[in-house]
Structures are given as structure tokens and as C-alpha cells.
Amino acid sequence: MSQRQLKLNAFLMTAGHHVAAWRHPQARADGGIQFAHFKQIAQTAERAKFDAVFFADSAAVWGAGAEQEAQSRSAQADHFEPITLLSALSAVTDHIGLIATVTTTYNEPYHLARKFASLDHLSGGRAGWNLVTSANAAEAFNFSREAHLAHADRYNRAEEFIDVVIGLWDSWDDDAFVRDKQSGRFFKPDAVHRLDHQGKHFSVRGPLNVARPVQGYPVIVQAGSSEPGKELAARTAEVIFTAQQTLADAQAFYRDVKGRLARYGRTPDQLKILPGVFPVVGRTREEAQEKYQALQDLIHPAVGLALLSGMLGGADLSGYPLDGPLPDLPESNGGKSRQHLLVELARRDKLTIRELYLRIAGARGHLTLVGSAVEVADQLQAWFENDAADGFNVMPPTLPGGLDDFIELVLPILRERGLFRTEYEGNTLRESLGLARPANRYTHKVVA
Amino acid sequence: MSQRQLKLNAFLMTAGHHVAAWRHPQARADGGIQFAHFKQIAQTAERAKFDAVFFADSAAVWGAGAEQEAQSRSAQADHFEPITLLSALSAVTDHIGLIATVTTTYNEPYHLARKFASLDHLSGGRAGWNLVTSANAAEAFNFSREAHLAHADRYNRAEEFIDVVIGLWDSWDDDAFVRDKQSGRFFKPDAVHRLDHQGKHFSVRGPLNVARPVQGYPVIVQAGSSEPGKELAARTAEVIFTAQQTLADAQAFYRDVKGRLARYGRTPDQLKILPGVFPVVGRTREEAQEKYQALQDLIHPAVGLALLSGMLGGADLSGYPLDGPLPDLPESNGGKSRQHLLVELARRDKLTIRELYLRIAGARGHLTLVGSAVEVADQLQAWFENDAADGFNVMPPTLPGGLDDFIELVLPILRERGLFRTEYEGNTLRESLGLARPANRYTHKVVA
Fold this sequence. Notes:
Chains A, B: InterPro entries: Diverse_substr_monoxygenases (IPR051260), Luciferase-like_dom (IPR011251), Luciferase-like_sf (IPR036661), NTA_MOA (IPR016215). Chains A, B: Residues 18-385 form the Luciferase-like domain. Two copies of one chain form a homodimer. Helix content of chain A is 37%, strand content 14%. With 448 residues, chain A is an alpha/beta fold. The first copy, chain A, has two domains: 7-285 and 366-433, TIM Barrel, CATH 3.20.20.30; 300-360, no CATH class. Chain A has an eight-stranded parallel beta barrel, surrounded by seven helices. Chain A has a two-stranded antiparallel ribbon with strand order 5-6. Chain A has a two-stranded antiparallel ribbon with strand order 7-8. Chain A starts with 6 loop residues before the first strand and ends in a 15-residue tail after the last helix. Chains A and B meet through α2, α3, α4, β6 and β8 of A and α2, α3, α4, β6 and β8 of B.
């Protein structure tokens, strides 16, 4: 294959990404907690040759800071934990990648390295870890803290966390386990490496009690777009999931991050940049607009406001008129890049609070495309061919219907244009993404 | 069904329980890390109507304190993490219970409550949690500690841990999620309960972001047989996995623990006591003895000694002759009851160090039965009918062969005697075990 092709993940979420998705007639309202729902969707996505399914996560109930009137109208209070769900999905799929978000803020690197190594073996090399820091204050209260770590400390911890995790994945040489029944030697004594990490946040001896992952490491995904987030990604990420509103912003981000790779001895193709996209697709533009409007009409104002408030780091908007402008807000300790993006969006398009929550009710700050299949395909192609994206994290408005629409209407056009695969390139997520299998630090010295 | 019947778990471990199992011609040497291996075994156990598959765990590589000569001859260095493995198995089985061991010493109750709730939903109500405290010093070093907590502190933490976990499982009323598309109400606002736990070890606000488990709670299993272990079990356990060497000891343990239940307002049938049993079964006693001897002959002395040393809490036996007696050992900070059991066993049977490690090389202190199918069935029946056991945690010497032997040779005899089910009683692990679904503390007040 000579032509560069799109990488596409199916970002799955309960009954769909739109905040009112669960109320839609075609959405499965109890989807978040029904294995049959995700099994069907993952198998559908695999038939369509998606690179991976992708799951976000938070170790707290959604909207814990919101008024209960809003919280009780959201489908986010009840859903599977991603590692368990993806492990189950590994048993009913064969090719599709399995990417789970897990925070570095409230976990231990040994547990995390072990679970992802285990998932990688269970799936024959299809695991990916979306490394995040916790921007949700409600999580702190579930882990014996009064407040979560400051933004800089979270990244500091994340930097050390990932070094420990990758070190643990290198515990064993790829050919360590000889299992020679005759001699009784199970592994080569010189093929195991103790990490003996001593750092500011962690002391971890190792080795891991799982063989080196099938992929060497599970694929490392990151979502941070703040300054420390971009720097961490440039050093360690292989996929970036980012929220970009315009082609120009996406191009600037793409150039910025890819430009940072060289100082870590990396080449641009070692990091795939996948903006999120929320596609509402119709056979015509009008049909798409009607679909979108039908979802928008289902949003309760309390839910819209709570969603916005949460994404602004817990800002209290209750005293401001819905049809007035977004007030100036103090900087919070939440996720920086998302707050910045929303404030910019409101300013740029002169949106009221209500208009702003309606604008993000589907895509939560990611690119929203409402149009005919050709229009949606054109946009994806424009970003892909103009140095704004290596592919996309596709966020279906409803599930399973919204994903079916994208597969049935948009994918055939992308394939016709040679922009998306018709068969998997191999068996592992790395092979789908075109990422090399990393060498073990202990057995393959890098030649400078 | 009027007759009381045996409860049987299949305790699975890499290539089998015998320390040299992986070297046996009929064992799958790489079984610990092959999903196909466990899928086949779990489906076999389900066809045989076992109550559950059961997995032990340690968050450290086996034998970290042992000399590498021993460690590199053990199959325990490379195996799946149990939560991920059982999640995957949930997708390829329908009735069999899924019990995973997870330590309370190096975990957070919110993560644990969430993962087991998720597994219970994934499996339609088949999850069980074997609650342990970490007796393995090597684990501490993987979690930023210089040494693990003292025995009393570990139990203190475990006591608080389980209260938090059960509290989190009660976060939602059973009928909380109404998902009314028309009104837009996803859950009943008064059906969610914040835990607001403030304790010595943990502060956890809650609620959990998963609906109440299908079983109310996953089944609580415990293995501690020390004084605080028995007391914790009497208060909270529904199944006890215990190591007992003789009928008399097992009866004393059974009487002791069941006798403690009343002071927690519980009845004897609310706690099932399942001693471990390591069955080497033949068509004749001679065939069984040959099978056993074949396994014993595969034990490398370094492996036997390391196994024994590890089970004695890391005791250094290197200076003592293999064919001399077990020396007096200082009390360690490891698992108390197992150390005590081994010292007693050596004294009672006047065993040398070598004889002692040979004695525990299969069952690690659990009951070893080597005999014809009728002899093994007779023993199980005798324990079952004489207040020593409600069933057994069956530890196959090799996998898959050792489990097949038990199923093909012993189960038909137990069934003939009416001692084991021919069909599952229901769909959940609680229904198999004959345990009631616990009420939610917030919605059903206990009437004193």
C-alpha cells in the first residue's frame, strides 16, 4: 500500500455521544451497562475495519457537582468500567483495537502495567492505553483526597507514571520464556530485568508478573492539549486524541506537536494525530440537519448547563442569564485546554450561554459535522490532506444508529477515494496504525 | 431439591497446581498466558456444572525473594491478571461463577467496587471477590513501600475496605434507573446514595458510577484462617476457602467459624466453607499413585525449597540440610495460618525439609487425595457429611488433564450419590451457591 490512509477509531459511549442521545428513539437507553450492546457495536466496527474502539473514563459519577435535576437526566451515571469491558470484548472480536482511558492521578503504575499487559495478551496484541490526568474534582473525593492534585503536579506524576509503566513492560525479554519441559527451565535467568525505580511519586521494584506484551507495549494514546500535555505526548504518545474546532486550529496543533518530536529522536509518523469528530450524517444535508435538530430538541436546559459548567472546570453559571454572554471566569484546576477552547469558541462566534451549551451538547468541544455523506467525507479528507489530522476519533451521536450511519454512508465514499482500508493490515493494533513494535530497552541498545 | 449438595469451585492456575505441573506431558506449559487454554477449561468446568472458576493472585512475580535458579524453574512468573481474564471469560460462558482474588492491601476500594460491579453486570450476576490481605513481601516493593503492613494493620485496613466496597455497591437502589425517554428522567433522584465514608484508612464520597450489581453484591469469598481472618469472615464472608489437613482439623475450623456467625446476626447456611483439595485420581489407586509420583519426580530441589521458604513467610532455609528436620523459625509478617499449618504438619508427621516440600509441592498445604475415583469421592463425602466442609475448592494437579480426570472419574460417582447437581439452579453465582441476594441498606431496613 503506497497511499497514506485515514486511521479511524470508534469512540463509544453509553447510548451515544450526544448529551440527550439516550432519549432518541434509535438509541439503546440502557446501553452503558449492556454487554450485548457493546458486543454488537464492536463487531460492527470490526466488520467496517475501524482501527479501534475507544472508551473515555472517569472514576466518579458524572455531574457530581451538578444539581441533581441535571444529573438525574444524564445517562453517564451508569456504565461499565473500561478495562473489564474491553477484556470481555477481546473474547468476541479478532482484529479491532481496544483502547481504554485510565487516569494516572489515582492509580498505581504496577496495577496499570499489569492490566494492560494482560489485555494485550488476551487480545493477541490489540490493547491501547489512553493516558490521562484527572481533571474531575469529584474523583479526588473517591480516593481519600480533599482536592485533586494541581495541574502541574498531575503532569509531573503522569511523566513519572508512564516511565514506570513502560519500564515494567520491559521486565522480560521477548524470548524470555523458553518453557523447556526437559531441562525444567521455564525462563532464561538473564532475560528478566528488575526495574528498581525510585522517584518522587513512586518506588517500584518489579519485575512485572506478565510476559512482555504482544505489541511490545500497548499503544500509548494521549488527549492532553495543554503545554505540558503536548510535551508529554511528544515524548511518549503514539496517538493523540484532540479537540479542534477549525481547520486552521487543527493545522496549528498538528504542526506544533509533530514539530516537537525531533527533540525526542522521533519522526512525525511515529505519532498519529486524531481529532475527535461528531458526525451527523444524512442522505442529504437537510436530512442530517433534521437528525441533529431532533437530538438538540431533547436537551433539558439543566443538563446543557451542567455539561457546560463541568467542561469549564466546575464554573458556577447559575447566576447568569441563559441568553446572555459567557461571563469572565476564574481559571480552574480542571483540564486547561478544554476550558480555553470553549471560551474561545464563545468569543469567536459570539455565543450566549444557551447557544454555547447547544453547540457542545453533542461533541463536547470536538468538531461537529452535520451534512450529507459527501459533505462529511469532504471535510474529513480536507483535514487529512492538509496536515490537520492523520485520522479521526469518530464520536457517533447515538448508538448503535449513529455509527451505522457513518459506516453505511460515509465509509464507502472514503474507500472509493482510497482513503480507508478494505482489509486489516495485520493482527495487532500497531499494525493497523502503522506503528513499529518498540524494542526492549534491555536487549536492543539504540545506536546514536 | 431437598438434599444438601456439594459446592465445587475449579481453582485454576497456569498449567496446574503442582509446582512442576508445567513440565508434565499433559500440561500446557504456556497455559498461564493463553486465553484459549482458560476458555477451554472454563467451558469444560461449566459443562460439568461447577459453581465457579477461582483464581488466586499476587501483584508481584513469584519467588522474588528466591534464588533465580529456583524462580526460573517456576511457571508462576507469567500469567494473566485475574480481573481482565475473568472479564474475557464472562463473554464465552453463561452459567459458571467467576471468582477473582484481589488484595485489599494495595488497592483502592472505589476501583475495586467498580471493577467487580462491572464484572457482575458483564457476566449477568456471576462475579465473586476473594478478599485477601497481602502476605507477600515482594508486593510491597511494587507499591512504593519498604515493607508491607503488619498483620494486624492489614486486617484493620481490610475491615474498613470491605465496608467501603459494600457501601459503594449500595450506591443505587435496584430500581434507580428508570430511563424514561419521554420525561427525560434517567434515574430517580432519590434512588442514589452518597457514601460519605470517613475512616482511618479511606475517605470515599461515592456514589459508584455503576448500577447496583446484578447479585446485589458479588459473592464475598475469604481465605484467611488466622484469628482476625476468621472474625472478618464471620462478619462478611459468604464463602471461605481454607487449607485443612485432617478431618478433625477441618471439623474444628468449621465449627469455630460457623459458631461465630450468630453474633453478627447470621445463620450457618449464609457461609459456605470450602477447603482446598488437590485430587490425583486414577482408575485404580496404583494408577493415581503413579500419576502423583510422575509429578513429584519432576520437582527440582531448588524449586521445592523456594516454595517451602515462601510459604513460611520468606524463611531462609539455605543453611539447613535438606534431609534434616525443619528448624525453629522466628515468626514472620506473612500469612499466619499457613505458616502454622506447615510447622504443625512437619512436627506431626516428623518430616524432613525435603519431605515437607514434597508434601506441599502439589497442594501447598491443602488436602492431598491420591487414589481411585471411589476413594476420592468417599473422602469428599466424609468431610461433607461430617461437618467439615460444604464443598471444595478443587485444585487440579495439571491443566487441562487434571480437571478432566476429576470430571470424568469423580463427578459421576458424586452425582450417583446425589451429592452434586446435574443442572444449574439458576443464572447467578448466588443461585448456584444457595446464597440470598442481599438487600440494599438504604431501601430495606433490617427488622431486629
